[in-house]
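Regression test case RT-17, inverse folding.

Input:
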């Protein structure tokens, strides 16, 4: 069974940067398509960015050009570099591991979840 642990959240001013990390254990990390999702208060959880086992990526339009997803298979870790942060990026960010790239890229949220990390962007 795969376990995911997110870290790197915090409070930052608008225009600032954060890097989220998600460490994966319990299974073969390299085979998974990984996704970062977020859920703001009163809103549904949404896919922010996804990366396939071979490095294909997908982003929601609102973060294109500001966020970058990457993975280090040697460290069993996926990252989300967030630049030019806006107050509307405030949310709990979750990491997801899915064996299917198509499901992950579609934002299905089918796989295993981490516990989430809070990102708060002040104006």
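Golden output:
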């Amino acid at each position: 069974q795969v376990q995911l642990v997110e870290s790197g959240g915090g409070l930052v001013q608008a225009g600032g940067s954060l890097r989220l990390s998600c460490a994966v254990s319990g299974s073969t990390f390299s085979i998974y398509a990984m996704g970062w999702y977020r859920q703001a208060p009163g809103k549904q959880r949404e896919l922010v960015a996804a990366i396939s086992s071979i490095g294909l990526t997908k982003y929601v339009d609102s973060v294109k050009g500001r966020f970058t997803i990457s993975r280090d298979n040697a460290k069993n870790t996926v990252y989300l570099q967030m630049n030019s942060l806006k107050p509307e990026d405030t949310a709990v960010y979750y990491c997801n591991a899915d064996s299917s790239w198509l499901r992950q890229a579609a934002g299905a949220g089918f796989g295993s979840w981490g516990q989430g990390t809070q990102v708060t962007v002040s104006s």
